[in-house]
Design goal:
The complex is a heterodimer of chains A (338) and B (350).
Chain A (H helix, E strand, L loop, with lengths): L37 H4 L2 H4 L2 H31 L16 H7 L2 H33 L5 H7 L2 H4 L2 H12 L6 H7 L11 H30 L3 H8 L4 H12 L1 H15 L4 H6 L11 H11 L3 H35 L1
Chain B lengths: L1 E10 L2 E11 L2 E6 L6 H9 L5 E6 L2 E2 L10 E4 L11 H11 L4 H14 L15 H14 L4 E5 L7 H16 L4 E6 L2 H7 L2 E6 L2 E6 L1 H6 L4 H7 L5 E7 L4 E3 L3 E3 L10 E7 L4 E17 L2 E8 L2 E7 L10 E6 L5 E3 L5 E4 L2 E2 L1
Classes of the chains: A mainly alpha (338), B alpha+beta (350).
């Protein structure tokens, strides 16, 4: 038997019932949030069928779109069928003469071939370097934040300014590069006066300038990956290289395609680097399509011809980039998952 | 045999493993402990995902310098971990291909395992297209298909609903029954440990408190800390002074002297399971909280400042603040000395 008992001095209590606000449908018509005033319901706007109201909201955007994209495009098409130049300024009707001239313009097709080589090679190198740098600072390493910012510095500089700096670096008698190459026994090189070297110089500047952009996108992709599959891969017998090939790379497929396409679109418009660094030279050895169109349109003032060149270039690029996107999706996203 | 010797690991001054030495034989051993007890860290150490001080060896081979991808270990975690970019079949084939098997043979083995876990129809789906239970089934199947001699299961069913959890536990037991695998199963649920394991290891604050057959460990936890780990609902701990004339329980008052026999006078702690407190009697206690769990009722009581937990095998409707008459059955209490070690069981000198 217990010798003493304790009785708590408390009244029997139950938790009070919770009260929730009444549903909207239960509000009275006079409630400030319950009904729209009658005058508004009778407005003209309300008499327009609901499925048509959306067009009214879309109209401002559509007008801006027409003004900044559609009109210039249509105007360019019209100009390309004229022989507008410095001697015959104005819209005449030249039929397909400009396109026929373009067909025989070897300089244009050579610029297009050069651009293709330049774009594909620089974007691929940027992708490889960007991925490597992103992998480097993805995991815990010393001064990780410092390196992340450091790798972005080239992208933060204005392209024209960066090209001027590189032109100084590559300068054959005044630049610092040749004395360095001399000192290490390679010897001075004709960076900007020989076609092959000039083309390499343009590539170097492009890669230097835009690898950080690739790095940024790929690092963002890597940081968004879930960590669990990597843990599973370790336990499932995949070492670091196999984990990269079988887990990291396939999981980065979609973001890789996005990054490559964005850079490919940008690279296909390369202009300022060529303009500042080589002016398309020596001769026409570093001339790209954009630069050639600039020369024909803005320097020679052959507006009709440059419009035909521009439109053809636009169509070629749209088709090429669509095909590249499809191929990359098959190769890097669906192929990696199979 | 998997042999752990003096494993220690600290992060930021917080010990995750504190000198753990254990031996695991083939069969299912349950690591039982509350959240933060070090169960997951221990499993990760065995898998090689963290590097503790000490030594891990398997069948005499030192694993200190063997990276995780070369250890003969499979692991399932509480998150549903699969490869999101692979379909279910390729998820299962992945560890086999990594081990060097032909792709076709690996896929065949994977297909066979999918059939055994009831997911044959899901082979071409991505993990994201499956339910949570199915995703975890894929993860378990991937671990099983590897056929590793050591299988680490880190609360694999904790994120599943009750029915699915029960079903999958049965399935896993059946799948493991025929193998000679060393299975280490981390759990926070004492009932799960009691039901599933051939052996149990109690863990708290990175230490292994006690190990042995589940029934022996559950009926006689060697320390107060172990008694806290093996009991759910929580065990009632009562401070008591035993003298030649009687037994005085803190807050509750004098209890029958013959409740504890064979012990010298002194200060003791009585550990009384929740089911050993019954309704009826002349000790009054106020209801502080009532939890109905399926077919049982756990009632938290306040008996004059002494918190008590009572388990009833029925659905009871105790109102908050209501006074109940209860009887603690001290004859079933575990008695611990001042050093926290078990000295008597069920009121008898141990």
């Amino acid at each position: 038997m217990w010798s003493r008992s304790k009785t708590a001095d408390l009244t029997e209590g139950r938790a009070p019932a919770l009260r929730f606000p009444a549903p909207v449908s239960a509000w009275p018509a006079s409630h400030p949030e319950g009904r729209i005033p009658q005058a508004q319901t009778a407005s003209r706007f309300r008499r327009i069928p609901v499925y048509r109201q959306k067009y009214i909201f879309l109209l401002p955007g559509l007008l801006v779109l027409i003004a900044v994209i559609l009109f210039p495009l249509l105007f360019t098409i019209r100009v390309s069928f004229s022989s507008w130049d410095v001697y015959n300024p104005g819209l005449n009707n030249a039929g397909g003469a400009m396109y026929a001239r373009m067909w025989d313009d070897a300089r244009y097709w050579e610029a297009l071939r050069r651009l293709s080589v330049l774009s594909i090679s620089t974007v691929l190198i940027q992708y490889v370097l960007g991925f490597a740098l992103a992998l480097l600072v993805w995991r815990e390493i010393a001064a990780r934040r410092f390196f992340r910012v450091l790798f972005l510095v080239p992208m933060m500089t204005t392209p024209v300014v960066m090209s001027v700096i590189w032109r100084t670096i590559f300068h054959e008698s005044l630049g610092p590069l040749n004395p360095i190459l001399d000192a290490i026994g390679i010897g001075a090189q004709p960076w900007l006066s020989q076609p092959g070297f000039a083309f390499a110089a343009v590539m170097v500047v492009e890669i230097w300038q835009w690898t950080p952009f690739m790095f940024l996108l790929l690092l963002a992709g890597l940081l968004s990956l879930p960590s669990e599959p990597f843990l599973a891969a370790k336990v499932d017998g995949a070492g670091p290289i196999r984990t990269f090939l079988s887990v990291t790379f396939p999981m980065m497929g979609a973001i890789s395609v996005g990054a490559i396409l964005i850079r490919a679109i940008e690279a296909s418009k390369i202009m300022e680097t060529v303009y500042v660094l080589t002016s398309g030279g020596p001769g026409t050895s570093t001339e790209t399509v954009s630069y050639y169109i600039y020369i024909r349109g803005m320097r020679d003032f052959q507006i009709g011809y440059s419009a035909a060149l521009s439109l053809t270039y636009l169509i070629i690029m749209a088709v090429a980039l669509t095909l590249i996107a499809k191929a990359l999706m098959r190769l890097m996203v669906r192929g990696a998952q199979a | 045999m998997l042999h752990l010797e003096d494993l220690s690991l600290s992060e930021g001054g917080v010990p995750h493993l504190a000198g753990i030495s254990l031996k695991f034989k083939p069969g299912l051993t349950t690591l039982l402990g509350r959240t933060g007890a070090g169960k997951t860290t221990l499993l990760r150490a065995i898998a090689g995902l963290v590097q503790p001080a000490g030594r891990i060896s398997f069948n005499g081979e030192d694993w200190s310098h063997i990276p995780p991808w070369r250890r003969p270990v499979a692991m399932v975690t509480q998150q549903f971990i699969n490869y999101p970019h692979l379909n279910v079949l390729d998820n299962l084939a992945f560890p086999l291909i990594r081990r060097g098997e032909e792709k076709a043979a690996a896929r065949e083995a994977a297909r066979d395992m999918l059939g055994r876990v009831g997911l044959a129809q899901m082979a071409s789906r991505r993990p994201s297209e499956l339910s949570g239970g199915q995703q975890q089934r894929v993860a378990i199947a991937r671990a099983l298909v590897k056929g590793a001699p050591i299988l680490l299961l880190d609360e694999p069913f904790v994120n599943l609903d009750y029915n699915l959890r029960e079903g999958m536990r049965e399935e896993l037991s059946a799948l493991l029954h025929a193998t000679r695998t060393t299975v280490i199963y981390a759990s926070t649920d004492p009932r799960e440990a009691l039901r599933m394991g051939d052996a149990v290891v109690l863990m708290s604050e990175g230490r292994a408190l006690q190990s042995g057959p589940p029934r022996a460990v559950f009926t006689a936890p060697e320390t107060l800390e172990a008694a806290k780990v093996v009991n759910d609902p929580p065990v009632n701990l009562l401070g008591a002074d035993l003298s030649d004339t009687g037994l005085e329980i803190d807050h509750l008052g004098a209890a029958p002297r013959d409740s504890i026999t064979g012990l010298p006078p002194g200060r003791y702690t009585l550990a009384l399971r929740a089911e050993d407190i019954r309704q009826g009697g002349d000790l009054m206690a106020r209801v502080a909280l009532t939890e109905v769990t399926g077919s049982e009722t756990v009632t938290h009581l306040d008996a004059g400042g002494q918190p008590l937990v009572m388990l009833e095998r029925r659905i009871a409707d105790h109102a908050l603040g209501q006074n109940l008459c209860i009887t603690p059955d001290l004859s079933r209490a575990l008695v611990y000395g001042a050093d926290g070690r078990l000295i008597a069981k069920g009121g008898q000198n141990g």
